[in-house]
């Protein structure tokens, strides 16, 4: 981490110029579960905005509508409900449009300036009345307090067990700049019911096409390197709004300030990516797979992702059973060409580290020590390809009985 | 199924010209678990032979050795142990060579005529003494009785709960011809510990390159359409030996007899593919995903496989929870281009059928009836793409607590 970057409180309201709120509108039966969230650029100030979306061929109506609204690279508000995904319904677009229109009306802005998102059950019809009725109260609740940030983070959660909000401060052009975010995701990157959503705010002054580029580049090594169950959601979205209030000279090209901003964005996105993996459905452990010395960055990413996605690796970690052959096996079907006779495999955690494979062959190791290492909460799987200089990290979690329980009966 | 094809008893010894045996040699601690299998072409008669192997970049030493031995398209025997995979060890090739040499010596044949396979834990060293000591007894046990066929089927099992052996009889060139096989696989197609192995015998007279072609073609729509956990094994292998004793005019080109033979091979391979999926680790249900009216066969296969591999689909089936959105979602990330607004989804079982999606949108359905349909042991997922004429079927199973238990502590 760069020395001038520090984590701060406040989530999406930490950067200057943003208000947020989260309340219960009634889409969920449990009155204690907030289910409607809003982020608003103070006084309707125009923000540069960008987003990346799910690559799933089947995508939710909110994705279609938001993509359309962000064509001009501008936005003023985010509205998001949890409980129902508004996907695969005949009236999905109509409902997503209505959410934007109602939000715009209550905030006094244009509906094209609204980012809309939904997460929850696919194929269920979204009732618009509870949202419509709750919007005035949601607007009244808008605030830049720490509590408001937390409420917003909570309102977008589905099967998440922990809220995910982070903010960082760093120096840009001699000015203190901030990035904040909230996220949800649990049945992960690729979830279905439990879509991955992340809404980022920043007070950096930056033009929207450069903002889009930074977001796109950062996502390759953060959100796209997380996998809980390999199911790519229909509703995944990461959006970012930049208020420009921090006072820096506007970032308009890939210069030094762009790199500083991108690094800061990387750090906060890496933080939340780890958190999302750790909070994977039913997870008892965070797995971090580091592939070292691969021939290309692309190869390193593919290899790390293949390991983290393997059901056999995941169940082995759940059982703390040091079966290193499963690591070799999962590398082998990654689609990457490599020499198996060069690979070293090491397991590492707070209890120490142990090497299981050297030059592609199993080596003897202390089973008791291995069990202790794999019994910790955070496990690193280190794979040295010994052929190049590129590296990548992927995050995942173990596969537990609880994952099966949660997903065997999600809708009830 | 073609009318002239019928299932018969005997497994690998049903075709004329084959002997088989399975015994306990001591690689497994449990003396009641047979762990060494042999198939032998009577009197050392030369068979045309072919095989297909795992596509995993990391593959077992037996794969290397068998691939080398089958270069000339000829074989006389199969030897296979369960318990240890003989993969990712410094001395793997040496041990696989030794298994062939010892087998050849006891049978009085050349070691190049032996197909060798191993299944079990990766990275454990294979002790050769128990195999060496047991080979004379294994040779003495060789027989063409039904019992011998069964013993052989049992000896190659790992976490399989049911033995898999089938045989069929059909007419070729006016003669009764037979194909028999034994298979194992449980943590499937793509298993790691529980490799998929299948040894096929036939008494059809056919040249080895045409035999290889038939096997390759049939595998695309059978074994390659099975998935239990998406992990491609390091040791997967399907081999076939043809004794030529049924008396048909030798098949040497892609003519009518080739098609008859290929159809029969397809039928027996489809049968065992279904059985392997149904016996997937921890499976309580067989899932059959039929994709209809796709633009190409390749698309249909990819779509069906994507559905069958989805953890969210698998857990949903375990919980008998009719969450059709997960089907749409898994089609969407298959990598196939399609129009989501055309797709129909139907669930079908012995309790009836129910449509969940029409033209890509969810439709109302009877939840009680859906629960009943999904509570049966065999579930069909029927997906109509409505854009072309091609179809494919993939087989899989649900994801249960038991899968997690088996794989959380496989080695102990």
Write the layout of secondary structure elements.
Two copies of one chain form a homodimer.
Chain A: E1 6-8, E2 18-23, E3 36-41, E4 47-53, H1 61-69, E5 74-75, E6 77-84, H2 92-107, E7 114-121, H3 129-141, H4 146-155, E8 164-172, E9 175-184, E10 197-202, H5 208-220, E11 237-242, H6 256-278, E12 286-294, H7 297-309, H8 311-318, H9 325-332, E13 344-349, E14 352-358, E15 361-362, H10 367-374, E16 378-384, E17 390-397, H11 401-408
Parallel strand pairs in A: 6-7, 10-11, 12-16
Antiparallel strand pairs in A: 1-8, 2-3, 3-6, 4-5, 4-11, 8-9, 9-10, 12-17, 13-14, 13-16, 14-15
Helix pairs in contact in A: 1-2, 2-3, 5-6, 7-9
Structural write-up:
2 copies of one chain form a homodimer. Chain A is α+β, with helices and mostly antiparallel strands and 412 residues long. Chain A has 11 helices and 17 strands. Chain A has helices at 61-69, 92-107, 129-141, 146-155, 208-220, 256-278, 297-309, 311-318, 325-332, 367-374, 401-408; strands spanning 6-8, 18-23, 36-41, 47-53, 74-75, 77-84, 114-121, 164-172, 175-184, 197-202, 237-242, 286-294, 344-349, 352-358, 361-362, 378-384, 390-397. Chain A has a 7-stranded mixed sheet, sandwiched between helices. A 6-stranded mixed sheet of chain A has the order 15-14-13-16-12-17. The two termini of chain A are 43 Å apart. Mean pLDDT of chain A is 91; it is low at 188-194. Chains A and B meet through helix 8, helix 9, strand 15 and helix 11 of A and helix 8, helix 9, strand 15 and helix 11 of B.
